[in-house]
Amino acid sequence: MSLDQLIENCKINDTKAQGELYELYASKLFPICLKYSRNYAEAEDNLQDAFLTIFNKVKQYKNIGSFEGWIKRIVINTALQRYRSEKVLNIVNEDISEDIEIDIDDDDISLKYLLQIIQELPDRYRLVFNLYVLDGYSHKDISEMLGITVGTSKSNLARARQILKQTIENYRTQQHLQSL
């Protein structure tokens, strides 16, 4: 069955088609959920909630643009909605303007460890970091998505980078000391 036919069948609440759509996209969407979640269990919850939203809103998809892009936006918005409802985004603007570079050498920092330390960032920093660095949204877009100012978005990104840089430096120091 073609993707277009699968989508049309989902629009008429065909549970078999919904199951096929889930099987087709769950493995692609779960890493996105993981980026925007505090842990694995929360990512699983976000994925399930996102698919419920996808199935409820699939009738609104007009076959214009990428279907995968459309469902990715739903996944990100589902995760962000959890934080909006928890009020974790109401923050004070921290005036940090320097652009911090993080030196990551593939030989000593694993992708798994990097994902772990990103997940450990405070919510407001992790969300801005992921939206800006990993998904390519502008600070203007982020400010609209999260209901914060552009300046707050920029300072949260800088703070996230500071925390990650310090965490990586501490990790490297620990690794060096263990090798002595």
From TrEMBL:
InterPro entries: RNA_pol_sigma-70-like, RNA_pol_sigma-70_dom, RNA_pol_sigma70_r2, RNA_pol_sigma70_r4_t2, RNA_pol_sigma_r2, RNA_pol_sigma_r3/r4-like, WH-like_DNA-bd_sf. CDD domains: Sigma70_r4. Pfam families: Sigma70_r2, Sigma70_r4_2. Keywords: Sigma factor, Transcription, Transcription regulation. Residues 112-162 form the RNA polymerase sigma factor 70 region 4 type domain. GO terms for biological process: DNA-templated transcription initiation. The keyword Transcription applies. GO terms for molecular function: DNA binding; sigma factor activity. Gene3D superfamilies: 1.10.1740.10, Winged helix-like DNA-binding domain superfamily/Winged helix DNA-binding domain (1.10.10.10). Residues 21-87 form the RNA polymerase sigma-70 region domain. Belongs to the sigma-70 factor family. ECF subfamily. PANTHER family: RNA POLYMERASE ECF-TYPE SIGMA FACTO, RNA POLYMERASE SIGMA-70 FACTOR ECF SUBFAMILY. This is RNA polymerase subunit sigma-70.
